[in-house]
Design a protein that fits this description.
The chain is of the alpha+beta class. Among the domains are: 3-33 and 443-551, Aldehyde Oxidoreductase, domain 4 (2-Layer Sandwich), CATH 3.30.365.10; 398-441 and 559-705, Aldehyde Oxidoreductase, domain 4. Helix content is 24%, strand content 24%. The chain has 16 helices and 26 strands. The strands form 6 sheets. Strands 3-5-1-14-11-12-13 form a 7-stranded mixed beta sheet, with helices on both faces. A 5-stranded mixed beta sheet has the order 9-17-16-15-10, sandwiched between helices.
Length: 705
């Protein structure tokens, strides 16, 4: 292809902002996409972990005799014979290193066998003896062990206070004081956590195919644990069947697979049973919320306090930042946001889609609805009246903030004003609700490399991860746009640690982080092409970019995405069942780079919000100490019958203070506020305020009768 083609300064038919078809779509629908356990190195064997059957204690004996007598069993790893591991900043990865059992489900042995079925059967034959200890798995706001941590997830300070909120609340003409609860929730991606591990013949190089949201983080962890330089560890995560946060950090399965492979000298494959996931791979911790709002009669907020109490494990501290959104949302002069944690004998919580924002905004937006009722003010109008000019907690200007526009456009599209009168339809009560949404803009350093070949094709290389979001597609669009070339000339290679390093897929920062690096590399290549004379060399031309320095420069702006949810529900007064009949989300999330992919992300998150509101709940059994709902038969995720025709829209937002594409994250904001909008709609329909999620039939019937 003529090299002049690559020197055009730009073109009008940009591919950014169009609904380009998924680059890997045909691979997925034909089964050609290979996931972690689709890789079968020669001589592969299988492993199956054995979870602890007591809530707390110590392993006193392991009887592997009956297990080793079964056909095909190669060995059983226990705390007595497992290879010793090196250091790690995550204690949950120190598997089989001692005899302590910090909580039910902690792995105490690992069976390795020729077949998957043989490994599973052999794991059931392992006999473990324990010395049990008293355990505590019960979270309550007045727990004597509650403490205030230094910081919470995301690096936010646990406590922020402005003014004198207690005095302002006491003086407020109108006050509401509300308590809300969100139970433990589980991620449950379609593909469970799985890995295939292989050491080379000399045991000098480890290759792992892992279902992970960040191959680079897995490589770093494995290199430290197994005493290797990182260049001697290769992690591949080319296709990942969902994650929702629980695959954002390395998990025990990949360590066990690598450990077993080294021990038996053969490749080992390990896929966690679904019933193990709630215990082993993190969960959304339960949160107990206490919110007080003070306002003038016209609805102007004068005071706000939000105290969130949650549990963490005794293994590793993780504190959900549930009160942080209250620092962003509304103009209020006196406020206090506080997080308290209780260390219990429970599995370690971790990331789940929109950690902090999802449970925190459920409580805040429910309280705002209660305040609107107390004032007799329309809930949409109340939110608009308290719109801040600057970020309340920092006084920084917003890079862009179009929440009011989202509320106004959503109200118009939903027919909000006309639907505000509750209706009865036989045994059904109908009502509507609204809630705002927010999610911060995160951007992480990344590197990228791009090549152009003499035939006019382009290759983009970056260790990004596609967990179902369409990363390959949108990165190809970024590259094609920066190079001013056809989209079909661009191929994107991702999901391997031998590619240029990049941030993980999490915090809704993937596209903004990776896209920035890809854009810079392509811009550098375009400049190089502009100065090139004659045909391209046989090896083509290349350029690289590293955004570390640019990304780490502190922005003077508060950068957030915003949105508004509108819900209509139908409540059956006979059965207590709640059905969502309409759901609309309108978002302001920067430039939308691919409308089809964006709509999919918004919709999927809103579906998770329906589950959070109506069906999803987990409980820690007070006797055996584990999660009672440990499979999809007991833990109810939404199915087709639960989901209405969801409508999604967005404000065309132009923000020059983000990244070269002008994009914000969209993967998580869709779940933020959905549960509150549904809960507010149920209150509107029934006249009863339910403050504990999920809004199950028994809770609704109790409230009605």
């Amino acid at each position: 292809m003529c090299p002049d083609r690559h020197r055009r300064p730009g073109r009008a038919d940009t591919v950014l902002g169009t609904s380009a078809v998924r680059a890997e779509g045909s691979q997925k629908v034909t089964g050609a996409a290979r996931y972690a356990t689709d890789h079968s190195p020669r001589g592969r064997v299988h492993a199956w972990p054995v979870p602890a059957a007591v809530p707390r204690g110590r392993v006193t004996a392991v009887d592997t005799g009956p297990c080793l007598e079964l056909p095909g069993v190669l060995d059983v790893l226990t705390p007595d014979n497992a290879p010793r591991l090196g250091p790690s900043d995550d204690p949950t990865l120190q598997v089989l290193q001692n005899h302590e059992v910090p909580h039910r489900g902690w792995y105490v042995a690992l069976v390795i066998a020729e077949t998957l079925e043989g490994a599973r059967a052999a794991a059931e034959a392992v006999r473990i003896s324990y010395a049990t200890e008293e355990h505590d798995g019960g979270l309550r706001a007045d727990h004597p062990g509650a403490y205030t941590p230094e910081e919470v997830n995301g690096g936010y300070p646990a406590l922020r206070e402005r003014g004198d909120p207690d005095a302002a609340l006491a003086a407020a003409p109108v006050r509401v004081d509300c308590a809300y609860t969100v139970p433990p929730l589980h991620n449950h991606p379609m593909e469970p956590h799985a890995a295939t591990a292989e050491w080379d013949a000399g045991g000098e190089h480890l290759t792992v195919w892992d279902s992970s949201q960040g191959a680079g983080a897995v490589r770093t962890a494995l290199a430290s644990l197994f005493g290797l330089p990182e260049e001697r560890v290769t992690v591949v995560s080319e296709h990942v069947g969902g994650g929702f946060g629980c695959k954002g950090t390395p998990r025990p399965h990949v360590v066990l697979a690598a450990m077993a492979a080294r021990h038996v000298g053969r490749p080992v494959q390990l896929a966690l049973p679904r019933r193990h996931l709630p215990t082993v791979v993190g969960h959304r911790a339960p949160t107990l919320h206490r919110i007080s709002l003070g306002a003038r009669p016209d609805g102007t907020l004068t005071a706000l306090t939000h105290e969130a109490t949650t549990h963490t494990s005794r293994v590793r501290e993780f504190v959900e930042q549930a009160a942080v959104p209250a620092r962003v949302m509304y103009a209020v002069p006196d406020s206090r946001t506080l997080h308290r944690a209780v260390a219990l004998d429970v599995p370690t919580p971790s990331w789940m889609r929109a950690p902090g924002e999802a449970p925190g905004m459920y409580a805040l937006e429910s309280a705002m609805d209660e305040l609107a009722d107390a004032l007799g003010v329309d809930p949409v109008e109340l939110r608009i009246r308290n719109e801040p000019a600057l970020e309340p907690d920092t006084d920084r200007p917003f890079s862009s903030r179009h929440l009011v526009e989202c509320l106004q456009e959503g109200a118009a599209r939903f027919g909000w004003a006309a639907s505000r009168t509750p209706r009865e339809d036989g045994p059904f009560l109908r009502g509507v609700g609204v809630a705002s949404a927010t999610y911060p803009v995160y951007i992480a350093p990344s590197t990228a490399r791009v090549h152009v070949r003499p035939d006019g094709s382009h290759l983009v290389e970056i260790n990004a991860t596609d967990i179902g979001t369409g990363a390959r597609t949108v990165l190809a669009q970024v590259a094609a746009d920066a190079l001013a070339v056809p989209l079909d000339s661009v191929t994107v290679a991702i999901g391997r640690t031998d590619l240029p390093r990049a941030s993980l897929a999490g915090g809704s920062c993937g596209t903004s982080s990776w896209g920035w690096a890809v854009h810079e590399a392509c811009t550098a290549l375009a400049a190089r092409l502009a100065g090139h004379r004659g045909g391209l060399p046989a090896e083509g031309l290349s350029a690289s970019a590293d955004t570390t320095e640019a990304v780490r420069q502190e922005s003077p702006y508060a950068r957030h995405a915003f949105g508004a949810h509108f819900a209509e529900v139908r409540v059956d007064t006979v059965t207590g069942e709640v059905r969502v009949s309409r759901l609309l989300g309108v978002f302001a999330a920067g430039r939308i780079l691919n409308p089809a992919l964006a709509r999919s992300q918004f919709t999927g998150a809103m579906v998770m919000g329906i589950g959070m509101a109506l069906t999803e709940r987990s409980t820690v059994d007070p006797v055996h100490g584990g999660f009672a709902e440990d499979d999809l038969a007991a833990y109810h995720v939404p199915v087709n019958a639960d989901v209405p025709a969801i409508e999604v829209g967005w404000i065309d937002e132009h923000d020059e203070h983000l990244n070269p594409m002008g994009s914000k994250g969209i993967g998580e904001i869709g779940i933020v506020g959905t549960a509150a909008a549904i809960g507010n709609a149920v209150c509107h329909a029934t006249g009863r305020r339910l403050r504990d999620l999920p809004l199950t039939p028994e809770r609704v019937l109790t409230a009605l009768h």
